[in-house]
Amino acid sequence: MTLFDTRRLEVFVRTVEAGSITAAADELAYTASAVSQQLRRLEQEVGQPLLRRRSRGVVPTEAGMVLAAHARKILRQMDAAQADLDDLTAGKRGSLVIGAFPTVASSFLPLVIERFSSQYPSVSLSIRSTRIDQLVTGLERGQMHLSLLWDHPWRPFNTDGIKIEELFREPFVVLVSSHHHLSQAQDVSMSELAQESWVVRASQHPVVEVLDRAATAAGFRPVIAMYANDYQEAQAMVSAGIGVALAPQSAVTVKHPGVRVLSLGAQAPERRIMVGQREERVYSPAEVAFKASLFDTVRELWPHMLRG
User: Which Pfam families would you find in this protein's record (predicted)?
Assistant: First the structure.
């Protein structure tokens, strides 16, 4: 059985991702000749070509694509192993790194932290709020102990090596200006909003797909009036009458005074909020306690959102 050198695997993956030996060498602080030497040795170990040279760089061969996919997993696991060993060596059992995404980091998570810190004041917490793909990578590499994640019914979360537990489900709600003709209503249907202009999140934010699906089910295509950078900006524009908006309920925990929140009732789209942890490791007492604080906070705030 061939045993691959992990450093050569890293050089290979960097080269594939950079698309050139020179660029990979710059990233790794190597010379281009040193990178070429490592790649030649790896190809000798594999017994077949891994890269196809072109005038403007390199591309992986079929064998190269297969090895790159496996190598990425190996490198993530090595990073995770080092992180676990560092925890033991440095005695970091009293610290936690928590991953989150912006809407829960600005609404639900602070309440959990307050509860947890009052019960475990000696545990140091570090919070990393970012996109879901980076949260998953952080868990895989051992850079986070646990993370809050989300998914939608039409695209359930499924990543090998990540254990998930459903925390709660939250509906999407409609935001209208306090001067809107529907502002005094409690509930609204999507069909009643067919003629409205919409304020949505920018940069291909997931809420755009939620709106498209809900509008399509109601028989119309939404007209977009503005792409907002965050939900606070979206609320401000809604309050000014630029349009109406769709948002997860947690995004309006801090509500703009000029905005009214309307329910979509039983037809409301929803998303699942989950706790994710890397499998194949022993969870520290601090992790177990923090996860308990997550569920306790949901039971106190939104018992109707719990499933099971």
Answer: HTH_1, LysR_substrate
